[in-house]
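User: Here's a structure from my thesis project, written as structure tokens. My advisor, Dr. K., wants to see whether a designed sequence matches the one we expressed. Can you design one independently, without my sequence as a hint?
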């Protein structure tokens, strides 16, 4: 067929296959292509049989099957594969056609592609898609950015397939910003996701190894939490996980190796935070926690020689109020999640200044209310915070966040203290608390660091009560003279 498809998709892996089923179910005719053409045949004769799909066995036929202006979405591996497919498409498409990269691409790559393709008259969009397999099929959160001239053409399709939230069936899809903004927001989303998953795993570890809860009890705790302010997708599926048994009646969770993988987006978030000088400490610790988990053989050896308290032994002698301590864990989890989101939105605020984007932070929060991995009930409170103050520097300063942290703080500190005393590794909980205490501390120890830098390197310092930007140098030894280094921040 020629020119019948509303949109085409390249890449029939899990996300691609489910996205096109979603599109077709909303009334769109979809052309599909995969480098391994056997996947195309299997799909159109399997899950896609009898539906409005055009299976293509060549990139040329794929392009011919699309209505103009052509809308081509890629769901393929980030990096060079995206550039390779673009180069294949360029001789076959024309000015005004639209290429959409729906994979987890690095935002700087998307920014480059927008500029390069605009010179050729092609409109490029880099969009984050969150929700996993089920979200892709039933309605994901979609975060498009890139060339704004493409938005009116792709908006009806992307908003139709996105998740909807009440009131009014609001689509969890809206234009994020120019250049690489869409993939940047998705990167931060994934960084927050890393933090959420690490925090939940730490809560589980404390309750299992310190309080001695079994899997059924853990399932029940997370199910109850999902009816509270912690209501979220990750809490919901965590409860399900603790109830799952294999064909032998054994709990699946107890059979899984404690070594977590990663695909790089969390690392990108941490690296970008370092580049901008933003203390996204919880996200960074969550990435490093996965790295540490991968050192399984080393950890097993270290456990035999490094002294310290044993959490599982402590659970046998726990004398406190178990119900109360579970509430403390809940408080610690909630407070740490608030810090995680605050750090993520602070990153986006600084990136907007750095890259000249006009990001609507309240709107971004709403994009995450449905369909995506980090969807949770308090995202609406983030929208309210930015509605009250669009120039809010840090979410922790908003009155609702202040009130929540005031309530949760005692339990948060109890959990952090118990973890340290009993040898329970909780890098995300303790990092979040340290960030909170550092952020609320008007005077930090950095004056000594600056004195040390000036002592050994003549790096100068500013004075308390002095003019901002006025630097001083002390001849600490009496031998250094008045020469000092130029002041700058790396």
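Assistant: Designed independently from the structure alone:
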């Amino acid at each position: 067929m020629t020119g019948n498809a509303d949109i085409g998709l390249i890449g029939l892996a899990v996300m691609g296959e489910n996205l096109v089923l979603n599109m077709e179910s909303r009334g769109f005719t979809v052309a599909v292509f995969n480098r391994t053409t056997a996947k195309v045949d299997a799909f159109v004769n399997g899950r896609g049989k009898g539906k409005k799909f055009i299976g293509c066995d060549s990139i040329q036929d794929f392009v011919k099957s699309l209505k103009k202006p052509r809308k081509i979405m890629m769901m393929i591996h980030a990096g060079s594969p995206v550039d390779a497919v673009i180069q294949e498409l360029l001789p076959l498409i024309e000015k005004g056609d639209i290429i959409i990269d729906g994979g987890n691409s690095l935002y700087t790559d998307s920014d480059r592609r927008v500029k390069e393709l605009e010179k050729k008259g092609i409109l490029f969009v880099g969009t984050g898609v969150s929700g996993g397999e089920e979200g892709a099929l039933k309605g994901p959160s979609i975060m498009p950015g890139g060339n704004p001239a493409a938005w009116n053409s792709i908006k009806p399709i992307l908003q139709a397939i996105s998740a909807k939230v009440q009131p009014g069936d609001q689509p969890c899809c809206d234009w994020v910003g120019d250049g690489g903004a869409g993939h940047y927001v998705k990167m931060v989303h994934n960084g927050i996701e890393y933090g959420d998953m690490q925090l939940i795993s730490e809560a589980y570890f404390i309750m299992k190894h310190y309080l001695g809860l079994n899997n059924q009890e853990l399932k029940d705790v997370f199910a109850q939490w999902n009816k509270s302010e912690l209501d979220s997708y990750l809490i919901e599926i965590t409860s399900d996980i603790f109830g799952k048994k294999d064909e032998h009646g054994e709990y699946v969770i107890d059979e899984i190796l404690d070594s977590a993988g990663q695909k790089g987006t969390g690392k990108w978030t941490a690296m970008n935070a370092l580049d901008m000088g933003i203390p996204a400490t919880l996200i960074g610790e969550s990435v490093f926690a996965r790295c540490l988990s991968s050192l399984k053989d080393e950890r097993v050896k270290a456990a035999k020689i490094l002294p310290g308290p044993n959490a599982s032994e402590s659970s046998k002698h726990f004398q406190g109020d178990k119900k109360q301590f579970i509430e403390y864990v809940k408080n610690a989890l909630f407070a740490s999640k608030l810090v995680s989101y605050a750090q993520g939105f602070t990153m986006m605020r600084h990136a907007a200044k750095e890259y000249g984007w006009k990001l609507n932070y309240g709107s971004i929060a709403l994009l995450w209310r449905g369909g995506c991995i980090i969807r949770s009930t308090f995202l609406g409170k983030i929208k309210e915070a930015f509605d009250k103050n669009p120039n809010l520097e840090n979410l922790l300063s908003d009155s609702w966040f202040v009130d929540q942290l005031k309530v949760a703080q005692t339990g948060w500190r109890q959990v952090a203290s118990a973890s340290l005393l009993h040898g329970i590794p909780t890098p995300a909980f303790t990092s979040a608390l340290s960030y909170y205490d550092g952020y609320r501390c008007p005077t930090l120890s950095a004056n000594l660091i600056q004195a040390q830098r000036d002592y050994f390197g003549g790096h100068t310092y500013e004075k308390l009560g002095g003019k901002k930007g006025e630097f001083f140098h002390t001849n600490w030894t009496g031998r250094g003279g008045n020469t000092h280094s130029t002041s700058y921040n790396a």
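When you compare it with your expressed construct, this may help: The chain is about 50% helix and 10% strand.
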